[in-house]
Amino acid sequence: MRISKANGKNLLPFIVLVSVLLLFSCRQEPVEYFNPNDVTPVITSPYSLTLNENHEVVANVDYVKCIDIGDKESFTILNFADIHVANQDVIMNSPGYQFMKKTTSELVEQIHPEMITLSGDQGYGQRDALVAVCDQINSFDTPWAPVFGNHDCEQTEISLKEQSEIYHGYSNCLFMDGPENLSVVKDRRSPAIGNYVINLVKVTGDTFKVVRSLIFMNTGSYQSYDENNYSAERYAIRDYASLNKNQIDWFSKMAQSVQPYGGGEAVPSTLIFHMPIFAYLEAVSEAIKVEVNAYDYQAWVKETNKIPYNDSSNPIYWREGYEGSSGVCHDFIGCPPYDDGVFQKIKEMGTIDMVYVGHEHKNNINIKYQGVNLIYTMKTGINTYHDNDMIGGTLITVHADGTAEAEHVLNKP
Length: 413
What we know:
The protein has helices at residues 5-10, 12-25, 87-92, 95-111, 127-138, 160-168, 245-257, 279-287, 297-304, 342-349; strands at 49-51, 57-59, 64-68, 74-80, 115-118, 144-146, 184-185, 190-191, 196-204, 207-216, 269-272, 352-357, 366-369, 372-376, 392-399, 404-410. It is of the alpha/beta class and 413 residues long. The protein has a single domain (5-410), classed as Purple Acid Phosphatase, chain A, domain 2 (4-Layer Sandwich), CATH 3.60.21.10. The strands form 4 sheets. The chain has a 7-stranded mixed beta sheet, with helices on one face. Helix 5 links the parallel strand 5 and strand 6 (144-146).
C-alpha cells in the first residue's frame, strides 16, 4: 500500500507546475457574500416509508432512498475526503491525479466497502475534473454518495446544478438534489442543493426496520457576518458559512421522520457534510490537553502540533472523560466564527449520535462530545496542503443494532 517516496521526489517539479496552474485557474472576481438566514423561511414536512410489492422500502419524497443491508452483522462505509482534483490534473495526468486513482483503488481493494461516501471538495466546480473523479469512484461498482465542499461550491466553471447532473449520470451514485429552497451559496448563483437522506434498512418478509439514517447536507462556502449581531467572542478570521434555520429544521425533521420505523427502538442518525459545525471547536477545546485557549488559534495549533498522530490515542493527550478519543488537530477548526446553534438542535433530537466532516486537511480527531461522536475524516488527496503521514480514508462500520464507529485507514504517499 506504500508508494515509493523516491518516485514522489522525481515528480516534485510537476506538482509545483500543477499548483501554479491551479492557482491561476481558480482565481475569481471578488463576490459579495450573504447571510444564509436571509432566505425565505420554509416548512419541511416529515416523510414516510412503505414497503412496495417488490419488498423495497420507498419514501414518499424523492430525496430519501433506502438500502437493504440484508442479514449482515455489519455494513461498511469507506469515506474519501478532500480529493481536490482540478482540470489541469486530468489534462496533465498529474502526480496528484495519479495518486487519487491509486489510493482510492487500494483502499477499496483492502476494505471492500459496501458503500462509499465523499465528504466534499472533490474539486473546484470544474467539469473535466469532476467527471474524472466520478469515473474513478463509480468504477468500483459500489453505491456511493457525495456532499459538496466549500471548493465545489466555488463553481469555478460549472454550477452546483450542473455538478448534480454529472452525479446523476452515474449508475452507482446515490446523490440527490433534495429541496432547492433551503439555502443558497456565495453570490446566490445556485441554491445549496445536495441535502438528502439514505436509510440503511433490514427487510424481513413483509416488515422492515431502519437500522441507521444517513443525512447528507451542503454546508456551502462563505457568508457575511455582522459583528454587531453577536455578543460572543469571534473565533478565527474565516467567514465560513453556517447552516441556516431552514437547514437545521430540515435535518431535525429528517431525523424525526425515521423514528416510527425502528421496530420499537430509537433510530440513530449520522450527519455527513464538509465543513465542521461550531461544536467541533467546543469539543477540541474541552478534550485536548493543552494549556492554550483555542481562540488563540495560532498558539493553539503550535501546541497541538506537538501531538503525534501515531500516538494520538494515548490518554496523556486527553482530559478526563475523553481518554477514549483519538486523532489530531494540526490545523485550526474551519467552523463558523460564532455558535451556529446546530449542536443544540442535535442534543434536542437525542437520536443523532455521529457527525463526520472533511475540510481541514491535517485534522482527524474522533471525539465523543456530550454523547455525539464528532469526527474529522482522513484526507485522501495530495494536491493541496497535507501531511504525508496522515493520508488515506475513514472506515465507518454500522452494526446490525444500529451502533456505529469510525476508524482511519492510512495509505501514505
